Structures are given as C-alpha cells and as structure tokens.
Write the structure tokens for this entry.
Amino acid sequence: REVLTQQLANHEVQVNQQIVDSVVTFLKHYNKKFNFQYIFSYTRGSQILFADPKFEITNDIASQLNKRYKK
C-alpha cells in the first residue's frame, strides 16, 4: 500500500509540474502582446493582499487555455 501511495504522489507531482510548465509557456506567449512586467499567482491568503481588479487576467488566461486544449 505504501508503494502505491508513493507512486500516486510521484505521479501527482509530475502532472502538476506539467500543468505549471504549460501555463508558464502560455503566459510567455500571452505576454508578448501585453508586455506585463510581472504576472503574479494569487491564492486567498497569499502575500498579495490587494490588487486593482483592472489588472485581473485570470478569466482571460483560463478562457484562452481552455480553447487551446479543446483543439
């Protein structure tokens, strides 16, 4: 059982890394158009306590990534 648990944990790490790599690659392409100096990751409780909503690009990124993966 411990071996299977470790294998599952290793697989989860690999899949998460693939997702992060894919998103970072997409953001590099996306940023060629917008020229942001920074693109932050935000989760509730993170070090970013407030951000002006006009700089929120999450929905746009999610929408474009979804279109990309539907192909």
The chain has a mean pLDDT of 91. The two ends are 38 Å apart (CA to CA). DSSP finds two helices and no strands in the chain.
